[in-house]
Amino acid sequence: MSTPRARVGDSVKTQLLLLLCAIWVVIGLTGHAPWKHLEATSISIVKSILDGGSMLAPLASGSASLETPPLYYLSAALGANVLSPLMDIHDGARFMNVLWLSIILLMVGMTGRELWSRGVGRHATFIMIGTIGLVMSAHSLTAEIASLASTATGFYALALSKRRPWRASGLFGAAIAVGFLSFGFMPILILMSTALILPLLFKAWRSQSFIKFLGTSILIASPLIIVWLGMLHYYKPLLYSHWWHKNLHSFHQMNYLYFLRILTWYAWPALPLSLLGLWRYRKQLLYKPKFQLMMVFFTCSIFFLGIVAPAKDINALPLLLPLVALGAGTVEHLKRGIAAALNWFGVILFGLIGGLIWLGWIAMMTGHPTKIKERLVFLSGTNHLNFSSLAFVIALTVSIIWVFVCIRAKQTNKSTVSNWAIGMTVGWSLLMTLWLPLLDSAKSYQPVFSSLNSALPKNHTCINSLNVERQQRLLLNYYTDIKIQPLEVTHQLDCDLYLILDTKGIGKIQPSQEWKKIWAGKRPADRRESFRLFQRVH
Fold first, then answer.
1. Of 385, 413, 443, the domain-final residue
2. Who contacts 377 (Cβ-Cβ below 8 Å, separation ≥6)?
3. Is 287 exposed, middle or buried (0-12, 13-18, 19+ CB in 10 A)?
4. Same domain, yes or no, for 239 and 202?
5. Judgement on whether residues 408 and 261 belong to the same structural domain of the protein
6. Cα angle at 76 between 74 and 81, to 5 degrees?
7. Quick one: 436 and 457 in the same domain?
8. Are strands 497-503 and 515-521 parallel, antiparallel or unpaired?
9. Cβ-contact 218, 173 below 8 angstroms
10. Does 197 reside within a domain?
């Protein structure tokens, strides 16, 4: 493996990389409510910490089981508390992702440089920024981001272990400890299995220095993990027992085909670049340590994700790391025709996306084209879009930068990945500035739950619910502090208020005559779900 030293700030390319990373990391973290599928549980746990709940084992509202260890949620609660004078709780908590995302991009770049040579680290970071799957998950309040940061750190530490074993052992130990304390066993399973299999299969990794590296890493990580487990067992024995039981009985998913299938779009453009790399280096894959590391890491990741992780896109994040590392080393060797095709595909794709976003924004602001405005109103549920000078300036600036790059940049292999990363950043920035109010209107539960809260009688004992999903109950509690009692759990309709979720295509449940409807509501653009609130008539 090569041993270059990067010269920070030695070229305009480095400055472009730093600017691009800053824009990509920050845009989209604030300015919108928690969205149901990814953020409901996390914001509920953060709220419980801020309300004085346990920091050792924070729980979501109404939950009796531990989701994951607390480190990510503690960092989010810290961000929410520190930034509370300036931001809402969810925005402040989400803003702490700046730390985790910075670690991810730094470790990805360092891995590319360590495995290949100077300059390839930039390629790796550009590819990572441009990866479709990451941009969709990275700006959400979810512990998987901390898991990816620790896994990326561990991957870099393994790459570094052959040259700087002592430094690498510190990084690997920290990665194991932080990964476990943020997300549980998955980061440990991936990193430790990779570290153990490499020396078993390949002679190049079978050395005294690697044994010392691995042993020192375990010594560094073990005390932190043992302390948390010991405290959890001592202070929260039931939670400890249930958490262990849940983890030990989770090896039954068999989602291998799911994760392999979604890589076709989720890992773009890392996937095609890595496939080209596999072909180019096919005769070296079993003989060079860097290829051995990438292959074993990918194999261990897909094995444990397939058998343990639920079939959710965000769980595929660790698979990006070896694909990006291999793809980065392929960029310099792309044939001119392939590089040009990838480059122009990115220019056309992001030009089309950016143009459509601008056209939609103009339609909402001016009323023309009429058909486009009608469609956006139908999808978002809002008739009016307020002009934001800040959002407009950011959107205009990134658009001008992208046009300038497309016109003036020299077309080379390197520009293929940099132009794609710039295009992805511009597309994401436009979406999170010009269209963010539309997206939030369609996704946010805040208006409907605030309306529900206003309709509650002054004197009521409790609220039963039927068919209301867990994520919706958590968001209701976050916005209003209301804790409802699901009929599916209590099996007793003993409250004086009754909240029912109706789903399109399923017949409405009509309570008996002792119940009177006092409120009904839904999200403005939601044509699938609606809520009804009933009060018991005495």
1. 443
2. 364, 383
3. exposed
4. yes
5. no
6. 95
7. no
8. unpaired
9. yes
10. yes
The closest alpha carbon to 437, from 372, 524, 370, 369, belongs to 524
DSSP string, 269-332: THHHHHHHHHHHTTTTTTTSHHHHHHHHHHHHHHHHHHHHS-S-GGGGGGGHHHHHHHHHTTGG
In a domain, 351, yes or no: yes
| Boundary-marking domain end, from 288, 314, 333 | 333
Cβ count near 516 (within 10 Å): 12
Residue 2 lies in a domain: no
24 and 137 part of one domain? yes
CA distance 162 to 3: 10
- Looking at the domain assignment, is residue 4 inside a domain? no
Average pLDDT over residues 479-494: 89
What is the residue range of 363's domain? 336-443
Q: What integer is the mean pLDDT of 360-388?
A: 91
Using omega within 30 degrees of 0 as the cis cutoff, is the peptide bond preceding 369 cis?
yes
Task: Give the pLDDT confidence of 81-131 residue by residue, as tens digits.
Answer: 999 889 999 999 999 999 999 999 999 999 999 999 888 998 999 999 999
Question: pLDDT per residue over 249-269, tens digit each?
Answer: 888 888 999 999 999 999 999
Q: Are residues 426 and 529 in the same domain?
A: no
Helix intervals (H) in 161-288 = 165-183, 185-201, 208-235, 237-248, 256-266, 270-280
- Pair (257, 131) in one structural domain: yes
pLDDT, one tens digit per residue, over 172-199 is 999 999 999 999 999 999 999 999 999 9
Asked if 321 and 217 sit in the same domain, the reply is yes
Distance CA 263, CA 132 (A): 10
Q: Please check whether residues 392 and 453 belong to one and the same domain.
A: no
Tens-digit pLDDT profile for residues 39-80: 999 999 999 999 999 999 999 988 888 989 999 999 999 999
